[in-house]
Automatic annotation (TrEMBL):
GO terms for cellular component: endoplasmic reticulum; Golgi apparatus; plasma membrane. It is found in: Membrane. This is Cell cycle control protein. Keywords: Membrane, Transmembrane, Transmembrane helix. Belongs to the CDC50/LEM3 family. Its main location: membrane.
């Protein structure tokens, strides 16, 4: 027979008679008075306004220029040409001229922008095979069912890369020209190093094979290119054989979906090692030669090129500075109202107000 519990009975579950378990520990409860609350409100208002002004000044020190080329100038004929899908494989080039009034000092980033293109649609975002993009051999010719209907081409070959995201890859190309008194010259751009490190070295890899003598075209043998691509994945960059396949940087940039329907993606970075671009983009006349391939009329979209400098805060985005300023002003307004109420009713006894 076991021993009976010493505390058996109706009081067996009663907590110990200690300060902690009986909740008798010393405690501090703040008394919210006008003398303590109002200084906090005024302090928060000042902090928010100062942060907003600081961020706004920082943003205003950056430069950004957007040039819409959807059907501007000579691009109008290309826009009309791309309305007919039968012309998809026919090339079309156009030129857009613009002017930079003030020098873009420092590093200058060249982006392409799309308006009203919803990369954040759930079904669209799921239409990809990350196992295929990471270089798994079993996924190369057996893509995930998530890629439907962009999983096989018209010949029944598995598509690489499969899915709607890769199929809709932006494929316009650009050459930026600077026109000075000495003549016209091509603005040099770095076209590599535009991806996130983790994307380039972890998330996107070409399939690995034991025979190292095989070319990339032989590695992708037995696969088809996406339906709306003009080139196979192993020949996206004919000038740099190390920038082909799933590790092509333009492909990687596109595969990182945007959160909003209006977005821009990095195309290149100014090479400042060459005169006269050592200090940035000088003021003057410029033009962009465009290989116009990406159709936008089907989703009522628009295309643009964006030139931008950046600061520690990023590019030119006024949302956060304005948010801080508006929040600071609202807090200040509320503090003034509370001060007026306290000034008028603060000394009146509470019992008198309840009568």
């Amino acid at each position: 027979m076991g021993k009976a519990k010493a505390n058996a009975g109706p009081l067996a579950r009663r907590p110990d008679n200690s300060a902690f378990k009986q909740q008798r520990l010393p405690a501090w409860s703040p008394m919210l008075t006008a003398q303590t609350v109002l200084p906090f409100f005024y302090g928060m208002a000042i902090v928010c306004v100062l942060l907003g002004v600081w961020l706004l000044v920082t943003v205003q020190n950056t430069h950004e220029l957007k040039v819409d080329y959807t059907h501007t100038g000579s691009c109008d004929k290309c826009f009309e040409k791309r309305k007919d899908r039968a012309n998809a494989n026919q090339s079309c080039n156009c030129t857009v001229v613009f002017n930079i009034e003030n020098t873009f000092k420092g590093d200058v980033f060249f982006y392409y922008g799309l308006i009203n293109f919803h990369q954040n649609l759930r079904q669209y975002m799921d239409s990809r095979d990350d196992g295929q993009m990471i270089g798994r051999n079993k996924n190369l010719k057996n893509p995930s069912s998530y890629c439907e209907p962009f999983i096989k081409d018209k010949n029944g070959l598995p598509i690489a890369p499969c899915g709607a995201v890769a199929n809709s890859m932006f494929n316009d190309s650009f050459t930026l020209l600077y026109h000075s008194a000495a003549g016209s010259r091509v603005v040099p751009l770095f076209r590599k190093g535009i991806t996130w490190y983790t994307d380039k070295n972890v998330k996107f890899r070409n399939p690995q094979v034991e025979n190292k003598t095989l070319t990339l075209a032989q590695v992708f043998e037995g696969t088809g290119q996406p339906l709306y691509w003009q080139k196979p994945v192993y020949d996206l960059d004919p000038w740099d054989r190390n920038n082909n396949g799933f590790i092509n940087e333009d492909l990687i940039v596109w595969m990182r979906e945007a959160a909003f329907p209006n977005f821009k993606k990095l195309y290149g970075v100014l090479n400042r090692a060459i005169e006269p671009f050592t200090d940035g983009l000088p003021a003057g006349n410029y033009s962009v030669l465009i290989s116009y391939n990406f159709p936008v009329e089907y989703f009522q979209g628009r295309k643009e090129v964006v030139l931008s400098t950046v600061s520690w805060f990023g590019g030119q985005n006024n949302f956060l500075p304005v948010a801080y300023l508006v929040t600071g002003c609202l807090i200040l307004l509320l503090a003034v109202i509370l001060t007026a109420v306290w000034w008028k009713f603060g000394s009146v006894p509470y019992t008198h107000l309840m009568r």
